[in-house]
Amino acid sequence: MRSTTGGIIIIIIFLLLDAYIYSVIRTLSVSHRTRLLVGIVYWGIAVLSITGLLLFVYTSPEVMGRKIRTYLFSAIAMLFFAKLLAATFFLIDDIRRLFQWGGSKLFLADTAANPGNGQGITRSSFLSWIGIAAGSGLLGTFLYGFRNQYNYTLVKQKISFPNLPDEFKGFRILHISDIHSGTFMDQRAVSRGVDKIMAQKADIILFTGDLVNDKASEMENYHRMFSQISAPMGVYSVLGNHDYGDYVSWPQDGLTKAQNLDKLKAVQAGMGWRLLMNEHVILKRGNAEIALIGIENWSAKSRFPKHGKMEPAYRGCERYPFKILMSHDPSHWDAEIRSKYPDIDLMLSGHTHGMQFGVEIPGFKWSPIEYVYKQWAGLYEEGKQKLYVNRGFGCIGYPGRVGILPEITLIELV
Q1: Could you tell me where the DSSP H helices lie in 65-216?
Q2: How far apart are alpha carbons 106 and 10 in whole angstroms?
Q3: Are residues 103 and 218 in the same domain?
Q4: Are residues 219 and 113 in the same domain?
Q5: Burial of 336 by CB count in 10 Å (0-12 exposed, 13-18 middle, 19+ buried)?
Q6: Looking at the 3D structure of the chain, how many domains does it have?
Q7: What stretch of H or E contains 45?
Q8: Alpha carbons 138 and 78: distance in angstroms, whole number
Q9: Where are the beta strands (DSSP E) in 258-345?
Q10: Which of 6, 29, 259, 348 could be disulfide-bonded to 34 (CB atoms 3.0-4.6 Å)?
Q11: Same domain for 193 and 319?
């Protein structure tokens, strides 16, 4: 019943938004024939999007197919946000008209002296066309973003620490995060990303969570591919919020939620990855040793799980001069690490994807995700402690990237 009610409410919202936008568009049409053509095209697209929405809500993934379902959801979401942006400009114009109408009633009430009064305030063609252009531009941008899903970008980052043992100077860490194998559609493109990882010849490879969207079975077509990832000092990983299977109803494929998590752990072990579950390992180079700590997902945001336990993971690390923490969610840094563990030198995270949408140019970066996460992409420093947030290897929801590209990070400690 709740699902049916929610679906009806969403459809009503879509219809009201379409009716409002069309009422503006038709006023810009100069002839009856143009209005008729615009109406047919507009409402034809609107009906198709609502039909697609109904199929997405009320059809199971098994019936529709994962690929169709992913792109259908993306198309509906893109149209909705494009229309919402256009409607924002139209609303600004309507508010302007309302104030102008109210002013005319208050201050120009003498209709005889003001023969134009009472005929209404005309809509601004300028604002209307700006709204249409903005909505169309956003839609075009999202469509362009599809081609960036596998546009893997190598980010090289040198990070200096005064307490780094001499033997670890020049130590190269390959950092990846948020693979989200359930969104992959092109095995060859993913393989090129894996080749790019291996081409860096890093000393160690660290993966900071979200191997899948929901189910361990998503790795079936990619298990052998990611098994190729290796480094002289090993491949280490932690769990992200999606790895627990919290976003689907269980059982799935004959597995319970707990069995799915066990299978995911086995997948990582089978690939040769060492999954750190609230524990640490010691990395040795020459006569020097540093600590690598890995915890389960821990988030300061209430909607994400707190399975991570720093106390047992950290216990025994005190005597090592340098410490690296792998923790999926960057909100963990401000919420616990900086205050309770000031001797953790470097924390590596992912999770945000940079929202897969934003602007990054030299000297400036912006994404809507920054209003939710203070640290969302790249390097952050507070005192002697540093945090690096990887923008993610894969995608979730929208299978594309606009401005914020998928990332492979090569960190060199100096």
Answers
A1: 66-107, 125-145, 187-199
A2: 39
A3: no
A4: no
A5: middle
A6: 2
A7: helix 32-58
A8: 8
A9: 274-275, 279-285, 288-294, 323-326
A10: 29
A11: yes
Same domain, 66 and 25: yes
Distance between CA atoms of residues 134 and 129, nearest Å: 8
Q: Which domain, by its residues, includes 39?
A: 2-146
Domain boundary among 128, 146, 164: 146
Confirm if 404 and 377 have CB atoms less than 8 A apart: yes
Query: Which backbone phi and psi does 375 adopt, to 5 degrees?
Result: -110, 115
Phi, psi of 140 (to 5 degrees): -60, -35
Round to whole Å and give the CA distance between 165 and 282: 14
Q: How many CB atoms lie within 10 A of CB 51?
A: 10
Shared domain check, 339 and 275 = yes
Tokens of 266: 């086995």
DSSP string, 80-115: HHHHHHHHHHHHHHHHHHHHHHHHHHHH---TTT-T
Q: Which amino acid is at 230?
A: S
288/334 same-domain check: yes
Q: What is the pLDDT along the chain (414 residues), one digit of tens a residue?
A: 455 676 788 889 999 999 999 999 888 877 888 888 989 999 999 999 988 888 887 777 667 777 788 888 888 989 999 999 999 999 998 998 888 888 877 776 554 444 444 455 677 888 888 999 999 999 999 999 999 999 999 999 999 999 999 999 999 999 999 999 999 999 999 999 999 999 999 999 999 999 999 999 999 999 999 999 999 999 999 999 999 999 999 998 899 999 999 999 999 999 999 999 999 999 999 999 999 999 999 999 989 989 999 999 999 999 999 999 999 999 999 999 999 999 999 999 999 999 999 999 998 999 999 999 999 999 999 999 999 999 999 999 899 999 999 999 999 999
The residue out of 102, 120, 146 marking a domain boundary is 146
Query: CB of 357 within 8 A of CB of 402?
Result: yes
Q: Chain-centre distance of CA 114, in angstroms?
A: 55
